[in-house]
Fold this sequence. Notes:
Order of helices and strands: HEEEHEHEHEHEHHEEHEEHEHHEH
Distance between the termini: 60 Å
Mean pLDDT: 92
Radius of gyration: 21 Å
CATH topology of the largest domain: Rossmann fold
CATH class of the largest domain: Alpha Beta
Helix content: 25-40%
CATH superfamily of the largest domain: Nitrogenase molybdenum iron protein domain
Low-confidence stretches: 1-18
Shape: globular
Amino acid sequence: MRRTFALVLAVFLLAGCASTAPRQDGMRIDDCGRTETFPQPPRRVVSLNQHATEILLALGLGDRLVGTAYPDDHAPPPSVAAAYAEVPKLADEYPSFERILEAEPDLVVGGYASAFDDSAGRGRKRLEDNGIRTLLLSESCSRAPFGMDALFADVAMFGRVLGLEDGAAELIADMRRRVAAVERRLAGVPPVDVFVYDSGEQTAFTLGGHGLGDDALRRAGARNVFADVPKNFADVSWEQVAARAPQAVVLVDYLGAPIGAKRDYLRGHPLVSGAPGVRDGRFSTIPLVELVEGIRFPDAVERLARDLHGA
Length: 311
């Protein structure tokens, strides 16, 4: 009995440590122009940007996530909200290099390229020179349109790096199922021409055709009127917005940017107030984190389909 108990205990302990066990040959990851080698899954991870943090928590990283920063809203998805509340917040925006070091990470993950700003002292090389590996979500460096399959490739990559392959597979399957359900409901429905308004008065900062948000619009039965702009987000002129006569407007919501003020600005704009979507009051509101790479991609597709088509 004692030998049996000891064997069971040993198996249990090994299973509990499996996610951080050393790898025989290491793992090489090519990420946004840099190559990182992981001899073992990281044990202490800092995540800079909310959408990156949500991916890591959804994979099941748990207490290995020792710091986060730069939240974009107050309400993480219910699936990760409790875990998110337990992660120490290093800063309201980006933390200093010294604050990052205080968390003693062996990996720092960035959601946007600005997370690794050389001029602010947080460059990838500087972190790596201090023994800290770095990874950046691929949407931030992609030179081609970034869609759902590229998101899934990133999720799978993080699963391999962190030793959380099962969590990655489950997350991908669930997201794929939810998006497919919306696409089935919208089969044959004509798309709605949509203008996405993030911010700006002299020019309009809008969603271009290279980001994940454009793919979310398409799968939700919408046609981004600035899909021809080869960027994730870009400035366009108000004359261009008016000329493209969007049938609906999607307002981007994030901390510090009142939605009501955006709506009122468009309604009072001398050029855009006459566009069909503004004139008819056909507005939808979507959190910024649903339009960038992350676990909220199905939320964006479901929200937009509901608002634009009632589906």
